[in-house]
Write a structure and sequence with these properties.
Growth Hormone, Chain: A, mainly alpha, globular
Length: about 400
């Protein structure tokens, strides 16, 4: 395969990572749903209900990660990615057909199913078009960078839709069109897949690995790091609306600052982790993240809040891949099973927002959300010093 042919096969796969980033629109969506649809509800329940948006999405990772791996063995990686795109397109049109709280939950549950399928299948598909260990590592990093750009751009796309079309909800058909283009590009690309051996992997065999205490601690680390990530994304807009008096469009730039610095952190981390111990790097970053979250409990000034989002995003950026790598290093003989297990842990994005909503409504302030996020970060701090791998 010559270089031009290889690039023509890599690009449509990398573009799929942009679609993967659509799940991070839950942050601004939950704030808009709270403002648009939950005004009639008592303040005691608005955050609990609006935070059900990320709960509906990320709980799908618990249900569909392992079944997707089994399905992928039967129909192939490319067809599995295309299936995820079809479900994404359907999900994106539901809020336009009927914009109610219930239908919003349905739409994001479907997006969660689609994103689970995509996350499980897209990275393996990349291995079919990239040859060579260094090039594969570079391409995987590039894919995560593309995903980060998608996450970062979501509030800007919502603001563009609001200004140009009069309603932020038009972000959904924009996403649908992008997904359709991704699907057509991928379908038009010829990708050869190696035959997959019959797998005996089952739910019980995968979850049996959790009997290893270190793997259990690392799995919970994935649960909590994704919970912190989604939690900050979900609360960022609401905190700025509550404390700085910004409207939902202006406050929507809070998640963008978070994702921009998280993107920068991931980019620099790729170089720093080649020089420094991943364990020490993890410890330093999570200590700084915890301090920033403590300050966020009391912060009331707009630019300070934006700055804290940046610090948290930068320091949390590499925690997921570090924990993931530790798990593989601990049990390299079970790499495939551990990969599926760790992706299942992404359901942490449903756990923390659920308790954030309840706590915020009980306290009557977004301080409740920050306290729950801080609790998740404190577990990551504990894990940083408790886990010994290698």
């Amino acid at each position: 395969m010559n270089d031009k042919t290889q690039v023509s096969k890599i690009l449509p796969v990398l573009f799929g990572f942009f679609v993967m980033g659509f799940c991070d629109v839950v942050g601004i969506t939950s704030a808009h749903v709270k403002e648009d649809l939950l005004g009639a509800y008592s303040p005691e329940f608005r955050d609990t209900l609006s935070n059900m948006i990320p709960v509906a999405l990320f709980s799908m990772f618990l249900l569909f990660s392992i079944p997707t791996g089994i399905l992928m063995n039967r129909i192939g990686r490319k067809k599995t990615v295309i299936l995820s795109n079809v479900i994404t397109i359907v999900a994106m049109f539901i809020p336009l057909i009927e914009y109610t709280f219930f239908m919003s939950l349905v739409a994001f549950a479907l997006l969660g199913v689609a994103n689970t399928i995509l996350q499980v299948s897209l990275n393996p598909l990349l291995t079919n078009v990239v040859k060579g260990e260094k090039l594969l590592t570079s391409s995987l990093t590039a894919g995560q960078f593309v995903k980060a750009i998608s996450s970062f751009s979501a509030p800007f796309i919502a603001a563009f839709a609001a200004m140009q079309f009069g309603n932020w909800q038009y972000i959904f058909p924009i996403y649908a069109v992008v997904t359709l283009l991704s699907t057509i590009w991928l379908m038009a690309t010829s990708i050869e897949e190696e035959p997959v051996a019959i797998s005996t992997t089952s739910f019980s065999s995968v979850f049996a690995i959790l009997k290893d205490k270190t793997i259990l601690l690392l799995f919970l680390g994935i649960v909590f790091v994704v919970g912190v990530d989604v939690g900050v994304n979900t609360a960022a807009t609401k905190i700025l609306m509550e404390r700085a008096g910004l409207d939902s469009i202006q406050a929507g730039y809070g998640p963008s600052v978070y994702f921009a610095l998280r993107t920068l952190g991931a980019f620099l981390g790729a170089f720093l982790l080649a020089k420094f111990s991943s364990s020490k790097f993890y410890k330093v970053n999570i200590v700084i993240a915890v301090v920033a979250l403590v300050v966020l409990i009391f912060a009331g000034e707009k630019f300070l809040i934006f700055g804290l989002y940046g610090v948290i995003g930068f320091t949390i950026a590499n925690v997921f891949p570090i924990i993931f790598g530790m798990a593989i290093q601990k049990r390299p003989d079970k790499a495939n099973e551990i990969s599926g297990l760790m992706i299942t842990g992404v359901f942490g994005g449903a756990v923390l927002p659920f308790f954030m909503g309840i706590t915020s409504d009980l306290i009557g302030s977004q301080v409740g959300s920050v306290l729950v996020i801080l609790a998740g970060a404190l577990y990551l701090l504990y894990a940083a010093f408790a886990i010994k791998v290698g």
